[in-house]
Amino acid sequence: MIDASSQRLAVEAHQQSPNGMLDLRTSGDEIDFLRPTLDVVWASWLEEIGGPKATLEMASDYGFGDPYGEKRGAATLADHHGAKLEAGSITFSAGISAFLRQLAEAGAGGSALVERLGHPDLAYWARAVGSRIHTYEDHVSLPALIHELHPSIVGIDRPNVLGDLLPLEFFREVSAAAVETGALVLVDEAYANYLGPEVSLVQHVRELQRVVVLRSLSKAYRMGGLRVAYAVAAPDAKDEVRRCIAPLGTSTLPLLFGLRLLSEGDIFLELRRRTTITKAAATKLLAGIGLSVVPVNPCLPWVILEDAGNKASDSLEAREIVSRKVPLGAGGNSGLAKLVAPLSAARWQAFVDCFAR
Length: 357
Description:
7-stranded mixed sheet, globular
């Protein structure tokens, strides 16, 4: 039974003050390990566009001639993902959160099938527009569930919080089921940034009918304030996306800088190297105080802990470390806690010092 009263938006997990403790709910230091660094990219871009005055001109540009950003973004995205993208398949908006809110409308009054540990916003907004909520945990059974339940919308995080990077063949099966039932499949690739553009489904989206891939410049890029995200839809889903998404969702200045950033390609090699090292060391420290660590892809910069009875979160709080409880995709507590790996030398030392108390 799904407890709707426990459903919360993801943003609510970040609103409590850390009260002076080491806040490992989100990373503040990933930006230090991007190559080239963002200040270098910004300086180069300013020079390319003719200096700071050009940014003021961009800020005054509505973008009426390209309300979904596709004309300006198509070439960059095709190059970034090594993909040939069909006209009308690209839509920009203000973050994946905005996409989930608006695309929930595609299933209004029907049902949404969401991942047990998926992003909670999709179920929140689907429920708000009158959709029934179903959950799944076993990915292998998902195509059969789509046939059984006939959902209007299916949500898949790739990777999810446990690092599951489901293969192309799986999505072919999901796509086939969605074609037969009419479901719209939303693949949230926010976390995939850490693994580089080559792992994205964007390069395969033309063959994956009923699939929409969602990506942003928030995770790994640390550019959440830009509010730049894009959807790349299969040919038979692109019109449905455009019917749901408001035009002018991403303003000109952040859109053009975001595209310049994407043109740098995979800027996360050093971040992945640093993550692998510090995450292994952090896992050892956490296990050393009796906490149970759930295995996750070593290149993803967070640690998942078993948190039944608040064992992990209480133990960390006693050491003045703030973690985050992993929510269930349809509301409720998963019994897991998440903390990001401290990457910078200063943050790592602060983390180590907490274990000396």
